[in-house]
Amino acid sequence: MPPSQKRARRYDPARTRTAVLAQFAHVRDGVRTLTPQQLAAPSGLGDWTVRELAAHVTMALSHVSQTLELPAPALAKPEVSLLEWPFTTASRADKIADDTTERAAAVPDLDALYAEVAARFETLVAGASEDRLLATRVGAMRLGDFLVTRTVELVVHTGDLNEATGLSVPYDRQALAACSRFLADALAERAPGGSVEVRVPPFAVVQCVQGPRHTRGTPPNVIETDPLTWIRLATGRTEWAREVEAAKVAASGERADLSELLPLMG
Question: How high is the pLDDT of residue 1?
Fold first, then answer.
C-alpha cells in the first residue's frame, strides 16, 4: 500500500481523552445491568462470552496505562502512524483473544475492574504529552494517535455489546466522530485517488479510488451512509451488499462499490 501524500488529520488530545473516558463510562453503566445469565451468553465474537467481551473492553484503556508506565521507546519518531494502525489488527487477533480470556478469568468483579482501569487511565494520561511515544503491540506510536485508536475499540465494541445483549448503550458524540473520521481516512489511505466521494454525515467526507477526478459540481461516484453503518462495514461487522440492499448505503456511479476494499480491519 503506497503511503498517502496527504497530511494526516489532527485530533485534539484533550477532546479525544474526554471522549474515550465518556464512552468507557457508558459501557460500564451498561455492563452493570447485565445478569449472570446475560454475561454467560455468547457475544457473537468467536468463542467469547459477553463477560469476556466486557472484560476485553477494559483493555482499550489499560493498554494505554501499561505502556505509559514503561520507559518511552528510545526512538526519534514513531514506528507506526495513525493511518497504518487499522491494517495491523488482523495479525494480533490470536494474542488479543488469549489476553482477553485470561483477564476475564482473573477478575471476577467487572465493575471494580472498570473503576480501577478508568482511574488509572485518567491519572496517567492527563499529564502526558500527545507526542510521548508508547511501545504498543505493533510498534512505537504517539500517545495522541493511540488515543484515537481507542475510540475505534470502544465504539465498535459498544455496538458488539448492544447486539449481543439487547442493551442500548449510547455513543459519545465525540468518540463516534473521531472513529468515523479515522476509518474514513483509513479508506482513503488504502485506496488513494479522487474518483469516488464517500460521505459519512455529519462527520466525514473523503475522496478515494484511482480514476477520473471531478473538479466541480457533484462527483460522478458518490457513496453515503450513516456513521454506525460505516463503522460496521469498516470493521467487518456487516457486508457491503447487505447494507446496500437494506438502503443503509446509497451508492451512485459505476465506481461506487467498496466491496473489494472492506473491511479495513480484520
Answer: 45
Q: What pLDDT, on the 0 to 100 scale, is given for residue 5?
A: 45
Set of cell numbers at residue 21: 473516558
202-233 exposure pattern, b = at least 16 Cβ within 10 A, e = fewer: ebbebbbbeeeeeeeeebbbbbbbbbbbbbbb
**Long-range contacts: 120-128, Cβ < 8 Å, 24+?**
120/61, 120/62, 120/65, 121/20, 121/21, 121/24, 121/61, 121/62, 121/64, 121/65, 122/21, 124/64, 124/65, 124/68, 124/69, 125/17, 125/64, 125/65, 125/68, 126/17, 128/68
Residue 174 is predicted with a pLDDT of 98
Indicate the pairing of strand 139-142 with strand 249-252. Answer: unpaired
Ranges of beta strands (E only) in the chain are: 133-136, 139-142, 196-200, 204-208, 222-225, 249-252
Q: Which residues, given as ranges, of the chain have pLDDT below 70?
A: 1-7, 213-217, 266
Strand duo 196-200 + 222-225: pairing:
parallel
Angle between helices 173-190 and 143-165 (to 10 degrees): 110
Nearest-angstrom CA–CA distance, 16 and 18: 5
The 10s digit of each residue's pLDDT in 188-226 is 999 999 999 999 999 999 999 998 766 666 778 999 999
Q: For residue 264, is it left (φ>0), alpha (ψ between -120 and 50) or beta?
A: alpha
